[in-house]
Design a protein that fits this description.
Length: 239
């Protein structure tokens, strides 16, 4: 189908244009699009003619670890490889300045930690993720990871800031709230459409609330984005 084909085209292009014989440590994101990155990486690693020497793949979630292991790639810990050559990850929304909303898959805390340790962050996505402002295409709120004991206090603080929020529930997979790989909860926060400076301003308002661990607002982190289009082409964005 068009969306899966777009994800695959974007991912294959990103891997082929950003992984070469000098690439040693790769960050692997989370979600459904990055699956195609791992697929392409595994193909190239297994190719006897490829000169790839991938030393380690650093995961951004339990799912990402599974992808690395199942692909036969070398699973590594961020503390063992605190400098990553390039990380490939998905996004829920991408604006024209490569600001992102991430966390739709509930993994944005570890994704941001790996991204921050990477020399390059390359985003892969299908055409549904492209937007002229954060909050326009992605209407499910800004994912915010919070410490469980304080989630109601944090919700009240968000209301005092003029926003609203919803605790992300796990049903039907599991009764009760989603619990992240780090043992925290997720609030999906509604603060309106974020244009220009509002992205950073909103992040700063949220991150200083006691008990907020990390927001899904990524600004000045992604250097490249590969967008698979409906016509089969790939749109390349670079900062
Ligand atoms: O949670 C995340 O940030 C993921 O990258 C995710 O939202 C992107 O997921 P997708 O590639 O399945 O759309």
């Amino acid at each position: 189908d068009l969306v899966e084909e777009a994800k695959k085209k974007a991912s294959y292009a990103a891997i082929d244009e950003h992984v070469d014989s000098s690439t040693s440590v790769i960050g692997i994101g989370s979600g459904s699009t990055v699956v195609y990155c791992v697929e392409r990486l595994a193909q190239r690693v297994k190719d006897p003619n490829s000169a790839l020497k991938i030393k380690a793949c650093v995961p951004t979630s339990f799912q990402s670890k599974q992808l690395i292991i199942e692909a036969g790639l070398l699973l590594a810990d961020l503390n063992a490889h605190p400098v990553i050559d390039v990380t490939f990850d998905g996004a829920d929304e991408i604006d024209e300045s490569l600001n992102l909303i991430k966390g739709g898959g509930g993994c944005h805390l570890q994704e941001k930690l790996v991204a921050a340790a990477s020399k390059k962050l390359v985003i892969v996505a299908d055409y549904r993720k492209e937007s002229n402002a954060l909050g326009v295409q992605w209407t499910k709120g800004i994912p915010v990871e919070v410490i469980p004991m304080a989630y109601v206090s944090i919700q009240k603080k968000i209301e005092s800031l003029g926003g609203t929020s919803k605790l992300r529930m796990a049903a039907p997979a599991k009764a009760g709230p989603v619990v992240t790989d780090s043992g925290n909860l997720i609030l999906d926060v509604f603060m309106g459409i974020l244009r220009g400076d509002a992205v950073l301003e909103t992040h700063l308002k949220l991150i200083q609330i006691p008990g907020v661990v990390e927001t899904g607002l990524f600004m000045d982190i992604a250097g490249w984005a590969y967008l698979g289009l409906q016509d089969g082409n790939v749109k390349r964005m670079a900062n």
